[in-house]
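User: Can you help me understand a structure? I only have the sequence.
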Amino acid sequence: MKDITQFFKAKELGQKITMISTYDYWSAKLCEESGIDAILVGDSLGMVIQGNNSTLPVSLDEMIYHAKAVRKGAPNTFIVVDMPFMSYHTSVEEAVKNAGRVIKESGSNAVKLEGAGIVLEITKKLVSIGIPVMGHLGLTPQFINLFGGYKVQGKTIDSRKRILEDAQALEESGAFSIVLEAVPSDLAKTITDSLKIPTIGIGAGKDTDGQVLVFHDLIGIFEKTPKFVKRYLEAGKLIKQALSSYNQEVKDGKFPTDEYSY
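Assistant: Let's start by predicting it. Here is the structure, written out as tokens:
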């Protein structure tokens, strides 16, 4: 995908959208070469790349840095960038300034904002000046301190009603798509059926208009992954085997041989 019109077309035609969350040149290059529709430069890099226990410490400059690398690796793919914690919460003006930096400096196509509330006003403003906005509801990691952990959302009648209403409000505000994270599959289906814009699920069942997974989870880099992740490869094990073999061969004097020398 190269523009938001293709998101709408996919929804209209019932074609599933594939999205991968990743953070660097080489993985983005692999995604584009594999035909992945869109890339999300997620603030999950705070956990996946930086080793933090949440997304909260990630800065705007760090998001832009990684988004630049992803754009170089995937020049023909639609790229969405997470606006990190506190980069859009203080005022609409600050949100416009920071989102503008993301688009101008990274060459990405859109930004993603978590939640509703003030985000609705921000979304309207950003869209009005030409910055596409993807919403994000359900388990929103920037609200982790309020949730008390990474827990499924939308399990009560009130929370289900709120998430549905927030999704409809985001659509009305001009969002072109909404990520639904860690919500019951029947709620995700209800929301998807109620919207004209596509939903992208992560831990939200099969009835969303598309799916997103973190690159490193999908290829099995880490020993443990969330329930909703299907591991298509056990790359972590293969990489450790390769490193162990290298380590042993160097210590045993078996590498390098003449084949690998000048």
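Now, to help you interpret it: The mean pLDDT is 97. The two ends are 45 Å apart (CA to CA). Let me know which part you'd like to focus on.
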